[in-house]
Amino acid sequence: MRPFLLLSSRPEDEAADEEYASFLRFTGLPAERLRRIRLEAGPLPPIDLDDHAGVILGGGPLNSSDAEDEKSPVQLRVEREIGGLLDEVVARDLPFFGACYGIGTLGTHQGGVVDRTYGEPVSAVEVTLTPEGRVDPLLAGVPDRFEAFVGHKEACRVLPPGAVLLASSSTCPVQMFRVGTNVYATQFHPELDVPGIVRRVRIYQHAGYFPPSEVEAVIARLTPAVVTHPPRVLANFVARYG
C-alpha cells in the first residue's frame, strides 16, 4: 500500500514531532505509511506523487500573508516548493489535505484572499457545516455543529474562485473548503485534542499568538473544551484514499 506524505514546516523539533505523532494517531496510519518531510530543514527532494496515496500539509509559524520583504529566505523557498507541488496536485485533482498553514497556501495558490482580517485567538470555536459540507465524504459522521481548536494570525477571507465552502464559524467565515473533488483545506486543527493543544501552546508561547504571561490563562480556557469530532476528518481522508 502506498504511503501518505506529510509535509511539515515547524522548525521546533518538539512541535514537529508532536505534530507527526498526532497525525499518526488520528489517521490511524502506522509510521511506515506516513512519510514525513520537514520543509524548513532543506530543499524539497524530488517527489513522485504517484508513489503516494495522498499529501497532508501541516501547520506552522509561517504565514502566507506576511509581507514579502519580511519573509525569510527559508519561507520564500518553502512557498515556492509548495506552490510547485500544488500546481500538480490541483491540475491532477490528487488527494490533498492542508491544515492551518495548508489553507493559507492552498487559498493563495488558487486565487483566494488570505489576510489578517479573521485571525483567531487560540481557542475552541463552534464550527458549522454548510449544506455542501453535510454531504461531503470527508465530513461523514461529523455533526452539523462541532467544537474545534483554532489559533491563527491569518485566515482565508475570500474563497478561491470555484472552491466549495464546507464549514464556517462566527469568528472565521472560511473554516474548510474543497477544490475540485479531492483537494481540501481546513482553518481549524483536526489533529489536536486537549493534550495536543496544551503542548503546542507551551511550545509557541513566545510566538506572538498571545502575551507569554497569559500562557496559564490560555491553557485554563482550553482544557474544559470537548473537541472530539475534528479528527474524524483525517480518518475519513485516509479511509477514502488509502
UniProtKB/TrEMBL annotation:
SUPFAM superfamilies: Class I glutamine amidotransferase-like (SSF52317). It holds the Pfam family GATase. InterPro entries: ChyE-like, Class_I_gatase-like, GATASE. GO terms for cellular component: cytosol. CDD domains: GATase1_1. It comes from the Bacteria. Residues 50-192 form the Glutamine amidotransferase domain. Gene3D superfamilies: 3.40.50.880. PANTHER family: GLUTAMINE AMIDOTRANSFERASE YLR126C-RELATED. This is GMP synthase (Glutamine-hydrolysing).
